[in-house]
Amino acid sequence: MWRRGWLIAVLAILTALPLLFHRYVPNSVGNLGSLLDTFLPWVGVAVPILAVAAVVRRSAIAGVALLVPVVVWGLMFGDLLIPGKGGGGAYDLRVLSHNVDAANPDPKTTAEDLIAADADVMALEEITTADMKVYKAEFAKKYPYEVSRDTVALWSKYPVAQSESVDVGFKWTRALRAEVSTPEGKVAVYVAHLASVRVGTSGFTSNQRNDTIKALGRQIADEKLAGVIVMGDFNGTANDRSLAPLTAGLRSAQGAAGHGFGFTWPAKFPMARIDHIMVRGVTPTKAWVMKPTGSDHRPVVAEVRI
Fold it and tell me: Which distant-in-sequence residues (6+ apart) come within 8 Å of 36 by Cβ?
């Protein structure tokens, strides 16, 4: 029993290595470090496969070795699986963000799904000119306040005191800032759609996205209002080291008050959470991911106390 399964044991230890040392994988070659960061939780899929092999081989040494990746994975991601972290209960503001997909075949149904979520503030990204007319018409009764800049927009039940485009160094506007006057006070709400990443023959290319991250991060760092909510499609996960200039000082609503990884993309079989609600100066009490709407992303929702 102790002499069998050494290969399985070695593979188990090797499975733990990218979890332990992913920060040391460089981005100099095809941005491999960021690619690993993006799909890091999925490294754990190797564990049940190796566990089956260990049982078949009746290998005690493999079983012991498997404890290493299990413990490492649990320490890294186990807190995401704890239900009720945010406490739930009373909240002051429910917010929603959704990349509605420029190729969405049925924006009207998507709008109806979003209305049913009953958010107080909604942030939408990747809206075409034609679809914008649909969303404005559908949201008009329930959301009297609307701000849009090119392909990003915000709808609110509460007055928007002021709004402005946010320059993230892209050829068209992909981010906006709005001051929403809630019953509990003003909150700065940012809506952003950061540049896309590409996986090609040269690897995982994300330089343009990283530049937009830094630009938006500088804007948020200089924000004067105490309550800040940043929503949108960041084209990167919270584990991706390249998001650090943006996420520094912000809390993930899903990480603080959600249950599970909250994967959002691709909608049919989500493998990564690239759509986010990040906050500062407000407290997330609950967060979740909605069912597919017709977009290639799933909407994200959070409730916060101001």
Answer: 18, 22, 25
Within a 10 A sphere around the Cβ of 174, how many other Cβ atoms?
26
Query: 95: burial class by Cβ within 10 Å (0-12, 13-18, 19+)?
Result: buried
Q: What is the pLDDT of residues 134-158, one digit of tens each?
A: 999 999 999 999 999 999 999 999 9
Residue 66 Rama label (left phi>0; alpha psi -120 to 50; beta): alpha
Complete DSSP assignment for 36-79: HHHTGGGGGGHHHHHHHHHHHHT-HHHHHHHHHHHHHHHHHHGG
| Closest C-alpha among 155, 164, 78 to residue 121 | 155
Single pTM value for the model: 0.92
Name which of 271, 293, 268 is nearest 38 in CA terms: 271
Please give the Cα distance from 79 to 11 (Å, whole number).
25
Q: Give CA–CA dist 241/229, Å, rounded.
A: 21
Residues in contact with 46: Cβ distance below 8 Å, sequence separation at least 6, in sequence order: 11, 15, 69
Question: Quick one: CA torsion of 61, 49, 53, 58, rounded to 10 degrees?
Answer: 50
**125 strand-pairing partners:** 99, 152
Asked if 229 contacts 188 with a C-beta cutoff of 8 angstroms, the reply is yes
Q: Could you read off the pLDDT of 107-132 as tens digits, one per residue?
A: 999 999 999 999 999 999 999 999 99
How far CA 291 is from CA of 2, 110, 243, 263, 303, in Å, comes to 47, 11, 26, 11, 17
How is residue 25 written in tokens? 């994988």
Q: Which domains does the chain have, with CATH numbers?
A: 6-79 (no CATH), 93-305 (3.60.10.10)
| Contact criterion met (CB below 8 Å) for 161 and 181 | yes
Burial label, 115 (beta-carbon count in 10 A; 0-12, 13-18, 19+): middle
Structure token digits, residue 71: 């413990």
Q: State how far the Cα of 116 lies from the Cα of 95, in Å rounded to an integer.
A: 13
